[in-house]
Each structure stands twice: as C-alpha cells, then as structure tokens.
Amino acid sequence: MASKELISKLENTIENISDFPIPGIQFKDISPIFLNPKLYEEVIEDLVAFSKGKVDAVCGIESRGYLFGIAVAVALEVPFILIRKKGKLPPPIISEKYDLEYGSAEIETREGQIKKGQRILIHDDLLATGGTTEAAAKLVEKQGAKVAQFSFLIGLKGLKGEDKLKSFNAEVYSLLEY
C-alpha cells in the first residue's frame, strides 16, 4: 500500500541500532520520524488509507501504539481506546494474560469503552512475535467486538508474529517489512 517513495524515506529515517537492548538484536529506532512532521503526516495518511471505512474504533497498545494510533483515529473520526499494561487504568477493567519468553504479562482496557459489535483496528508500532497483539485481540473479542484489522509501522517477518493473528480473520498491514 505504501508508495516506494514513502518506504524509501522511512528506511532512510529509521535508525538501526545494533546490539540493543541486548547483544544480537537489531533495534529499529522510529523516533527520528517525529523530527520530520511532514514524514509523520505521510505515515498517518498511509495508515488511514488502509482503514478508512473499515473500522469503528482504534485500539492502541501501550505505549508506542499510541504514537500513530491516536492520529489515525482522529483522522478516521473514530474513538481511540487505550490498551495498557496491568495496573495502569482505574477500575472497572477487562484484562488478558499472555506468555512472554520468560514469564507472563497482562494487558487491560477500561470496561465499556469497546462496544459490542464494533469493528476494531488494533495498532502498534512493531509486530515481532505477536504475543502482545494476540492478547489485545482476545481482549477486544472478550467485549463482543470484532478485530477487523491490525496495523503496524514495522513487521519483522522472520519472527512470524503474523501467524498468531491468522485466527482472527482480520487484515494485517505493516508499512515496512524486514
């Protein structure tokens, strides 16, 4: 969906940081995008084009899912719903646990913000192994809504996160893929 020009601009802007946060990891630093308001606008336009007319609300995963997700929701003129780490939202909440490489984690959203029957876009900055995104989708379904789409700035194909999302029968879009 993204133009070759936009992809090229992003590839020249996103910084690759070797061995961060641990040796062997190639960290994709998206923060330079925010130094260029026009480029940020182009990213939002691309993400909006993917979802226009297809969703009733956007859920963003804490915290980097908020960086683009809120702007996408505003442009689509739909609500933006926070998905946060456990203990960050006041009750009443709905939660979903998921496994990590070592241990487990939990995410939450405020009860009543996701409405039954809504078509939801789940947005995050990066799709890696897909565990957090899968948990977010289960959180949406617990409330009677349907995950219609997933969107990401970056998808890391080698980690097969998209495989965890197949059961939701939703469109998956990554602006950049590595």
Mean pLDDT: 96
Main-sheet strand order equals: 5-6-4-3-7-8-9
User: What is the number of helical segments per DSSP (H or I, 4+ residues)?
Assistant: 5
Instruction: Determine the N-to-C terminus distance.
Output: 16 Å
**Structure classification:** alpha/beta
Largest sheet: 7 strands, mixed
Encode the helix/strand succession as letters: HEEHEHEEEEHEHE
Name the overall outline. globular
Model regions low in confidence, pLDDT < 50 over at least 5 residues = none
- Helix proportion range: 25-40%
> What is the beta-strand fraction?
25-35%
Compute the CA-based radius of gyration: 16 Å
By DSSP, the count of extended strands is 9
Structure, explained:
The protein is of the alpha/beta class. Helix content is 30%, strand content 33%. The protein has five helices and nine strands, in the order H-E-E-H-E-H-E-E-E-E-H-E-H-E. The strands form two sheets. The chain has a seven-stranded mixed β-sheet with strand order 5-6-4-3-7-8-9, sandwiched between helices. Strands 1-2 form a two-stranded antiparallel ribbon. A hairpin with a 4-residue loop joins strand 5 and strand 6. Helix 2 crosses helix 3. It is globular. The mean pLDDT is 96.
